[in-house]
Each structure stands twice: as structure tokens, then as C-alpha cells.
Amino acid sequence: MSKEISTQVVVLGAGPAGYSAAFRAADLGLDTVIIERFDTLGGVCLNVGCIPSKALLHVAKVIEEAKAVADHGVVFGEPKIDLDKLRSFKEKVVGQLTGGLGGMSKMRKVDVVNGFGKFTGPNTIEVQGADGVTVVNFEHAIIAAGSRPIQLPFIPHDDPRIWDSTDALELKEVPGKLLVMGGGIIGLEMGTVYSSLGTDIDVVEMFDQVIPAADKDVVRIFTKQIKKKFNLILQTKVTAVEAKEDGIYVTMEGKKAPAEPVRYDAVLVAIGRTPNGKSLDAEKAGINVDERGFINVDKQMRTNVNNIFAIGDIVGQPMLAHKGVHEGHVAAEVISGLKHFFDPKVIPSIAYTDPEVAWVGLTEKEAKEQDIAYETASFPWAASGRAIASDASEGMTKLIFDKETHRVIGGAIVGVNGGELLGEIGLAIEMGCDAEDLALTIHAHPTLHESVGLAAEVYEGSITDLP
Ligand code: FAD
């Protein structure tokens, strides 16, 4: 069975980038259709990414906090994990949010066509759904088809004990021993969850630090903490993975590589994500897709084809939901005739680990690469009343300033709730604040965000007696 519809705007993919673009387009009065191959809206982020991982990290945090208060005279005893109930909690959170998106699209009269969409020309996409083909004729298209986990040819990915992040989020079992391949954000977040559930975890990372994008001093504080729960194998890579009946045997090479293959109950491959650009027959619409599957766009999110835009993970790094949302708004507004550009000064990055690692704007590494004269100031949480009172003194708030203007150009926080505290630094950079602006802003006491003002005071020279 085949049917045909026509619309002003079609959005291919219903992740954060796609639904944000579709909703904005509809709000601006454009006829809008979303094509999504899965039954629910929300893409990777809501279904198998940001949201389910944070639900599980919330539980992991409660477990760790309950353990930690034993040192202060309150003993809860060993946690009993009911995996089915935990999975239901995660699914309820996901369902609430994806269901909400369904309601929001209905309210806006955005039609959802379920199925796998491919271009057949510069104004048509053919969608293969469970109940037949739908041909969507469009004036404008926005490609928001996202990304998927990278797989390696020497890894038997079809073995159920070899996981990607989606498998890890399914929470089918709590393995005795898990190898997390890749010390980036996704691997460490999932490692944090499983460690709290009782799994013994090794993390193998090619670089000499985990979270390679963050500055060394920030990661040092983080590493000191996570070494208590993970065995970190740095400057080492996996060279062979063999699935045997009694476990997955992993061979590693490098500075810290074990001499013999190591047996694991499961292996989580978290070595990055790759864009879905090659599965869309984009060439039939004349769209250039690079050899990795990314689609190049200009600052208005327009591809090389005038009526076709692209947003989200598929247009490049950083592959983050909030970046895609803003790009989606730009694309929709440009299509509606408004003048809008994607030109943010900063896009924040956060590892929702324990403790959290968060940074925004330039890192020192980037400032050096870009030959920018900079200075830094840090406030250690060992000097923060709130951090000490909350048993969270292993943290730091760091600011990076332009040496000449003293404007904030970057910042990082490692510590409990670091991600929540980062907002002030992002705003400071966007607004062009200098050290004095932050130092003179009265921050409430005792709070953790006070540390942002105090780091600026350190830079101004008004605090000198730090531990
Ligand atoms: P996606 O979310 O990938 O959505 C693309 C959609 O397009 C999918 O629903 C897909 O089914 C659909 N699609 C693709 N091709 C077709 C086709 N041909 N036809 C029909 N439909 C198609 N980011 C953060 O900012 N914060 C976090 O805390 C965070 N945590 C994460 C945790 C994990 C475990 C993972 C895996 C990712 C996480 N991310 C996080 C990244 C975030 O999920 C992505 O950056 C975000 O989802 C990208 O949004 P998108 O709209 O570009 O694409």
C-alpha cells in the first residue's frame, strides 16, 4: 500500500534536534511532518541516551550517598537491587518524556510518519513503514537523522555479552566483571551506574587520561576519586576480543596492558559515535555527505542544496542534545524567513559521573592551540563551607580569563553537581563578563556556586590563603 502527502517542511528524525526544529517550524505557522523510524519520538537522547542514563545515575548516586553516610554514623546496610523495578523506573521516566513529545506534536498538528525515510529527489522522501510506503513531497527538508555507536571490525558485536550504550541501558543483568572500552563520557557514566550496582569495572583508554577533551588538572581531581571504584588502564588499547563460552577474553596492548588476555563477563564498547548520513540516499537529492557520514552545513544549517537543512549529531561535533536543539531552532526560523544564525560562543560539556566533570568555553588546551594569551584561577572545594558540609570537598572550580581584558573565556568544574553549577560560567562567557563582574556578584552562602565568584576573587587577588 502506498500513499502520498505534501508538506512545507519535513523533518527526518525525531531526536532532540528534529523535534525542536519541527515544533519551532509548526509554531511559526509552517505545515510540518516528522519522519521517524521508531514508534516513539525523542531519538537517542530520550530513548537510549541522556535521559535513561540520568535516571540510572540518579539511583547510583543515592546508593553511593547512602554508603558514604555510614562514616558519619548512619548505616543503611547493603543495598538490595531489584533489577526489574529499576528497569521499570527508567522506562517510566523515558515514557513520560517521549509521551509528552507525542502530545506536543499533536497539539501543534505536526504529523508523524513512522518508518525509514530515504531521499528519492530534492523534493521527495520515501518512507518505508510497517503498513507500506508513504511518499512525502516537501518544499523544505531538515535532516536530523543523528548518529549510532561506532563498532570495530575485530569485535564480535553480535555476542549478547558485547554491549554498546543501548545494551548497557537495557539493564538485563549486573555482570560480575565488566570492561568499559573508552574512557569518554558515555563509558564512564555507564561504568558509574554498574559500579554502584555491584559490578567490578576496568576502564581501558588509549590516551594518558580519561575524558581526553578536558584539562589535565580538572581530570586529575576526578581520577583520584574514580580510582576508588574503577581500575583504570590508560595509554592502552584493545587489540583482540574473543567470545568464549566462559566469558569474553580481551587482549590489550600499551603501557598498562595486562600481559595475558583478561576474562570479562561483559564488555561495553563506548569508543564514540558515527553519523547516520550514509543511509539516507542523500545523493539522490544532490546533498554532499562526507566519507564519515557527516553533512556539511553553513551557519544557517543549510546544506549544499538550497531547500535542505541538516542539524544535530549528523552535522558534526560536539554530538550533544543541546547543540542539536539550538541548531533545530535556527533551521526552522531560517525556513520561515527569519534571519537567524547558529553562532554560539560556547556549548557546555558535562560528564554526569561521580563526581561530575563539566566544562564550557575554552579549555587551557584549546587556548594554547589557538595561541590565546590566558590566565587561570581556581577555587578548591576544600575551602568551600558547603562542599565540606556536604562531604564533597574533593572538587574544584576553575576559570580561564583572557590575559589582556580579564574576560572569562572558559571554565570547568569538577565536583558534585558540577554540571548544574556550570550555567553561570556559560552565561558569563556569552555576556562578555570579566573577573570583576563575577567577583562583585553576591553569591548566596553557603552554596557550591559561590565557588564561581570565589574563583574570580582568587584571580583578582583578594583571596590568597587557600589550602
Ligand atoms: P538522535 O537523537 O540520534 O535522533 C535521530 C533520530 O532519527 C532517531 O530517532 C532515529 O531513529 C531517526 N532516524 C535516523 N535515520 C532515520 C531514517 N532514515 N528514517 C527515519 N528515522 C531516522 N547528550 C547530551 O547533551 N547530554 C547527555 O547527557 C547525553 N547523554 C548521552 C548518553 C548516552 C548513553 C548516549 C548514547 C548519548 C548521550 N548524549 C547526550 C548524546 C545525545 O543523545 C545526542 O547528541 C542527541 O540525541 C543527538 O540528537 P539528534 O536529534 O541529532 O539525533
UniProtKB/TrEMBL annotation:
Highest taxon in the source lineage: Bacteria
Enzyme class per UniProt: oxidoreductase
Pyridine nucleotide-disulphide oxidoreductase dimerisation domain: residues covered: 347-455
Keywords linked to the UniProt accession: Disulfide bond, FAD, Flavoprotein, NAD, Oxidoreductase, Redox-active center
The FAD/NAD(P)-binding domain, residue ranges: 8-328
Record GO terms (molecular function): dihydrolipoyl dehydrogenase (NADH) activity
Cofactor(s) it depends on: FAD
Catalysed transformations (reactions): N(6)-[(R)-dihydrolipoyl]-L-lysyl-[protein] + NAD(+) = N(6)-[(R)-lipoyl]-L-lysyl-[protein] + NADH + H(+)
Recorded family membership: Belongs to the class-I pyridine nucleotide-disulfide oxidoreductase family.
PANTHER family: DIHYDROLIPOYL DEHYDROGENASE, DISULFIDE OXIDOREDUCTASE
Note: The active site is a redox-active disulfide bond.
Protein name, per record: Dihydrolipoyl dehydrogenase
Organism: Shewanella intestini
Encoding gene per record: lpdA
